[in-house]
From TrEMBL:
Keywords: Membrane, Transmembrane, Transmembrane helix. One of its GO terms (biological process) is endocytosis. This is Protein export membrane protein SecD/SecF C-terminal domain-containing protein. It holds the Pfam family SecD_SecF_C. It comes from Dictyocaulus viviparus (Bovine lungworm). SUPFAM superfamilies: Multidrug efflux transporter AcrB transmembrane domain. GO terms for cellular component: cytoplasmic vesicle membrane; plasma membrane. Gene3D superfamilies: Multidrug efflux transporter AcrB transmembrane domain. Residues 81-202 form the Protein export membrane protein SecD/SecF C-terminal domain. The chain crosses the membrane at residues 74-103, 155-178, 184-205.
Length: 230
């Protein structure tokens, strides 16, 4: 009885119960997935009685709610990534293959593998500039200038370090290694040009002035609402 009293709040003058709490335990909760479904079931029960204004507390509730939605989020992220990469490859890979042919490389399995491996390099230089622009303040020109102040030097350093790493491979008398080095040289060069010149110009001309938008981070209650809809 003392334990119950310690977890309850009373209106002594009116003589009725103001609030109370109790602990719910479950078996077979060693796996995180089982705990997630258990907590989700408890939330559904509480939502069935909104008149009691009941709240479920769990120290790991954010992680448990995320477990229930991570599958749908993962599928959506993979689909968006595949779609974006398909568009980028359709628009730009032909230029990369053309430059490799101009530099003496043939269209063969080695070149195909090199192009696939080097695709990720093209994203690095433009993504950082676009993110800094997205988080900037003021007019489009001010945001572009701020983005370049933040990212121009690191991008140039990254490009130069990549060039220095690939430079010795140019002199290796092996076709596969030389073709890979040429691919990296071309991709990094195009990435620097796009990140330092092309993308800033396009952003300054096509994007209106605005304040930075909040980061797309899901709060716990949003995750819980999505879990309830599963």
């Amino acid at each position: 009885m003392n334990a119950i009293k310690s977890d309850a709040a009373w209106y002594y003058l009116e003589g009725y119960l103001k609030s109370f709490m109790f602990v719910v335990l479950g078996r077979g909760m060693a796996e995180w997935a089982n705990r997630a479904h258990f907590v989700h079931g408890l939330r559904k029960v509480l939502n069935s009685y909104p008149q009691w204004n009941a709240t479920l507390f769990d120290g790991d509730s954010a992680v448990l709610s995320l477990i229930l939605t991570v599958g749908h989020d993962l599928i959506g992220s993979i689909a968006a990534t595949v779609a974006c990469m398909a568009v980028i490859c359709i628009l730009f890979v032909n230029s990369l293959v053309g430059l490799l042919s101009w530099w003496g490389a043939d269209l063969d399995p080695v070149t195909q593998v090199d192009v696939l491996l080097a695709t990720g390099f093209s994203v690095d230089y433009t993504a950082h500039v676009a993110y800094q622009f997205y988080r900037g303040y003021g007019t489009a020109e001010d945001r572009v200038a701020s983005s370049l102040r933040e990212m121009a030097a690191p991008m140039i350093q990254a490009g130069l370090s990549t060039f220095l790493c690939m430079l010795p491979l140019i002199f290796v008398p092996t076709y596969a290694i030389v073709a890979f080095a040429k691919t990296i040289f071309i991709v990094v060069s195009i990435g620097l040009v796009h990140g330092l010149f092309v993308l800033p110009v396009l952003l300054s001309l096509s994007v209106s002035s605005s304040n930075p938008l909040p980061l797309p981070i899901k709060s716990e209650h949003v995750i819980e609402n999505e879990a309830d809809q599963l």
